[in-house]
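Review box. Two proteins, two foldings.
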Amino acid sequence: MKQSTGEAANDIRINGSGVYRDDVRAETVHIAGLGRFEGNLTAGSFKSSGSCRVKGRCSALRMSNIGHAHFRSVTAEHIYTAGSFQADKSVEADTFHAKGIVTIGDTLKAGEVRIELQGAAAIKRIYAERSIDLRADGLSVMNWLQFWRRKAICDSLESPRIEVSHLEAELVAGEEIRIGAGCTIGEVRYSKTVVVDPRSVVKRTVHISI
């Protein structure tokens, strides 16, 4: 097991097991094994295909996760995750694209949010400047039995354009909103259009004039 205190480097690669005790700054971080960062992590490119834990703040231009990743908070330009992604506090990005399990303890703030549910998702709040697309798509014969587990739970979603399915939320607010199947929504606030699938429940719909 590699152990290190504060470090600045061009390239950090973890193929086995690595622990960094203090803050780390690097051009690239690539984890193919087990990586643990006790402090803050700053990188140009962050890639994980293994398991990683960042107990401090994680900042990156580009982030890719196809394993299991657990952060305190994340700030990045582009985030792509196809495994398990967990942030105890907030996540900020220009684009956030996810497949798999997503858990965010506070707010997900981005320009564009696209989440394809392949498991459970729990995000306190989602705010997107351009669009939110959160759906359980791509069923196959092999995984139809697990479809009932594909559900997102949020307090609120806000964006100009929103399309969702299999969502439980107190509030969905935007300009153009499409509620697909399997949703239970407390209130929908819209300024232009709203479409609700008959297989969903929306308790209250409010039209807001601009």
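Next protein.
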Amino acid sequence: MWYKRVEHIERKNLSHEIYNADFAIKPLSVNTSAPYHLEDNSLLQWIVAPFLQEKRGISFEVPLYSLEIYRFIIDLVAPHFNSIEGIHENNELTSIRLSEMKNESRMAFQQVVTQNDILSPVVKDFYLRSELDIRNQVLDCEDIEIIIDNFQAMNNVENRELETLIWEYLNNIMLLNGGNIILAPQNWLFNENLIESPTLEYLSRYAKRLYLTVNKFNMHVRAIEMFIE
């Protein structure tokens, strides 16, 4: 068995100190164009993929944990969006929020993806599964722990993602958040087929603990939670 149901997820005790910070959200000005080189960078794919299905109200917020990630977002990602907002804490820019992808960028990215099939298996698995009808249904969730050693022994994923850019991005966010992160996979159902998930195979290489939050009513996977310590 590669998973088990758990009563609760053990987390670090969070500090109860009140953090008083002045928050401000301000528009950012960036270059008006950037290349569409999805094949060169799985992290660019990870950020862009949620916008390729033309759903309304999608945004993507990137914590600025280094100068390198700031330059990456400003130079290669942000120019593809109409709305680029800087989130400031105590007058310091701490993250960038992207929304409203430009139509010409979406169409160009979609064409690249369709013609070349260059998306990372992890990105495709996480974001682009077939649409599920899960609206207006009962919500009754349980937590399921992936038994990592068993999962890896049973997993038989082909075309394994070798690039580490997505992991480095997630790891840096976890270091900011005290060692864990919660992700929302799109259109996942919990069943035995998840043993073949490229995303879970990829995350299991690095995680110390890995959990799924599942709606018992329809087996919809609402979240992946990962710990590195």
